Each structure stands twice: as structure tokens, then as C-alpha cells.
Amino acid sequence: MKVTLVSRSGREFINGGLELPDSATVADLQEAIYKRTKKFYPSRQRLTVPVPPGSKERPVVLNYKKSLKDYFDEKQNKLTVVFKDLGPQVSYSTLFFFEYLGPLILYPIFYYFPMYKFFGYGEDRVIHPVQTYAVYYWCFHYLKRIMETFFVHRFSHATSPLSNVFRNCAYYWLFGSYIAYYVNHPLYTPVGDLQMKIGFGFGLVCQLSNLYCHIILKNLRNPDGSGGYQIPHGFLFNIVTCANYTTEIYQWLGFNIATQTVAGYVFLIVATSIMTNWALTKHRRLKKLFDGNEGRPKYPRRWVILPPFQ
Ligand SMILES: NC(=O)c1ccc[n+]([C@@H]2O[C@H](COP(=O)([O-])OP(=O)(O)OC[C@H]3O[C@@H](n4cnc5c(N)ncnc54)[C@H](OP(=O)(O)O)[C@@H]3O)[C@@H](O)[C@H]2O)c1
């Protein structure tokens, strides 16, 4: 079977196309492209079926597991595929690892080392118990996230663009340093003992609930990450679609009740708005996938992320 490869502008991408056996799959085509170009490994490639000029239709992305025959145009008796370079890729676990490593290292630096002399303060600093508990709470949170990345999450996408590493690291590393600077500051004023205990206690319960939510999500997929999207059931998922984000937001609220800084609350607001956007997309996707038609289950009525608001 002859496969013609074109770029999005319609120019031929591989001169003369590629010849593949009739039984070839999309994955075989991806390997053949890599072999020929020596640059575009499979996860860098986005292969789609061409759409007629002027059409508003979204192009169909070729599924790597399917046979090329499934996309063969019988009328034109040929197969034309549009190639797009997605740019250098990294695995999701690499992306998450570097995102979380920054705050895990940067925050304790502000607690353990005499950093504030570089900001014009003396070396003497009284460390309040809340600052000590905060550093443990913080490190537990990011260690948990790294452990979940390697031992719990079953990602559906193998890779993410390398550029996301820089964007996401900037977000986590800068916010981590910003919060660490204020919570460990020599002029920091601690909250009362009861408020601190309520904040950390509530936050810890939410962190453990968040881990449990991630285990529930993990069990919706096969160990190789296949299985697509399912309706999550059990625990808080019975009332809210993104219970993992709900517990994530509340655990940051707990941290902020205990430590009470403007920096911490700014992060809480930004993180909540990011997760709310994602949660709305995930909720819509599940409602569309499980629409109750043609034997498909109907997605139950649930809050999206933060009952009773959303
Ligand atoms: N503080 C912040 O700013 C912030 C922001 C975002 C996330 N987080 C934290 O990081 C965690 C991970 O976030 P995330 O957004 O990358 O992933 P996520 O949505 O929490 O999902 C975790 C894993 O479960 C899978 N999954 C989700 N819904 C599923 C369903 N209905 N059926 C089957 N599998 C499903 C996901 O698959 P896919 O690979 O297909 O997505 C992913 O592998 C969050 O839960 C939260 O604790 C924090």
C-alpha cells in the first residue's frame, strides 16, 4: 500500500511517499516515518486524515493501534496522511517529576539555610513551631506527588511537549519559592495554636483523601494505561466529578489556615482557577462519553469540583 504524506500546507512531506504492506498498522507507518526521517520518533508525530479545503470539521487523528486499511480512501484508491511535528517530547512522569522536584528542594532551603541575610536581614531568626510543621507538611505533599507519579497514576498520553516542562516548572518553582519566602520570613507572625492544629489536621485529612481519590482513578484503567475514560465511583466521586481536585484545593486551604500568608492564598486562588477549568472540561467529556444513548451508561448528576458552587 502506498501512503502519501503531506504537511499541513499540503506540500509532500516525504518525497515519493512510503510503501507499506497491506496489513500494516498506523504504528508501522509511524516507525517507517521515523526510519526515513531519523528525527520524528512516533510520539512526536501527529497523523491525521486530510479534511476538504475550507471545511470546519476537526481532522480525524489516526489511532496507532488501527490498521492503515481503516483509513484507506476507496473512492480515490489511495491513502493520504497529514503529518504534523509535535516538537520534542518528554514522558509524563519526567514532566511531573521535574515540576515537583523544584518546590520539594526550594522550600526547605528557606527553612534550613540562612537565606534571609541575602535579603538584608540579620542571621538570627526565631523558628516558630508552625514553620517547622509547615516544612514537613510541604515536603510530605510533594513527596506524595512524586510517588503517585511513579506508582499510582496511569496516564493515557505517553508524552508531553518539552516546552511544557519549562512552563510548568516556572509555575511550581516560582510559587514554591514565593510561599517559602513568606512562611519562613524572620518577621513572620504565627497564628494561634488552635488555628494551626485545625489547618494542618484538616489539610492532612484532605491529602490522604486525595491519595485515595488517585487510587480510585488508577483502578479505572489497565496497568498499561489503556481503558480510556470511565465513570469514577466510590468515596467523594459519588457526589463530585473531580474529587481529586476538590481534595487538592482543600488541602491547600488547610495549609493556608495554618500558615496564613498572602502568598499562600494567591497560590490557592490561581491553583483553584486552573483546576476548575480542567474540571469543567473533564466533566463535559464524561457527560459526552456517557450520554445514555445506544447502550452507553448515562453520566450521573454530580457537582463538578466545589459543591455547592460548581
Ligand atoms: N496545585 C495545582 O496547581 C494542581 C494542578 C493540577 C493538578 N494538581 C494535582 O495533581 C494531580 C494530578 O493531576 P492531573 O490533572 O494531571 O490528573 P488527574 O485528572 O488528577 O488524573 C490522574 C490520573 O487519573 C486518570 N484519570 C482521570 N480521570 C479518569 C477517568 N474518568 N477514567 C480513567 N482515568 C482517569 C488521568 O488520566 P489522563 O492521563 O488521561 O489525564 C491521570 O492519569 C491532581 O489530582 C492534583 O492532586 C495540582
Describe this structure in words.
There is one protein chain. The protein has 7 helices and 6 strands, in the order ββαβββααβαααα. The chain is of the alpha+beta class and 310 residues long. It has 2 domains: 2-87, Phosphatidylinositol 3-kinase Catalytic Subunit, Chain A, domain 1 (Ubiquitin-like (UB roll), Roll), CATH 3.10.20; 90-289, no CATH class. The strands form 2 sheets. The chain has a 4-stranded mixed beta sheet with strand order 2-1-4-3, with helices on one face. The longest helix has 28 residues, at 262-289. The mean pLDDT is 94. NADP nicotinamide-adenine-dinucleotide phosphate is lined by residues 153-157, 210, 217, 220-221, 229-230, 232, 244-245, 248, 271, 274-275, 278.
Mean pLDDT: 94
Extended strand count = 6
> Which percent bin holds the helix content?
40-55%
What is the number of domains?
A: 2
SSE pattern: EEHEEEHHEHHHH
Largest sheet: 4 strands, mixed
Total helices: the number is: 7
Which stretches are poorly predicted, pLDDT < 50 over at least 5 residues? none
What proportion of the residues form beta strands (DSSP E)? Answer: 5-15%
Global geometry = elongated
Structural class comes to: alpha+beta
Bound molecules: NADP nicotinamide-adenine-dinucleotide phosphate
Strand order of the largest sheet: 2-1-4-3
Q: What Rg do the Cα atoms give?
A: 25 Å
Distance between the termini: 52 Å
Keywords: Lipid biosynthesis, Lipid metabolism, Membrane, Oxidoreductase, Transmembrane, Transmembrane helix
GO molecular function: oxidoreductase activity, acting on the CH-CH group of donors
Protein name: 3-oxo-5-alpha-steroid 4-dehydrogenase C-terminal domain-containing protein
GO cellular component, one term: membrane
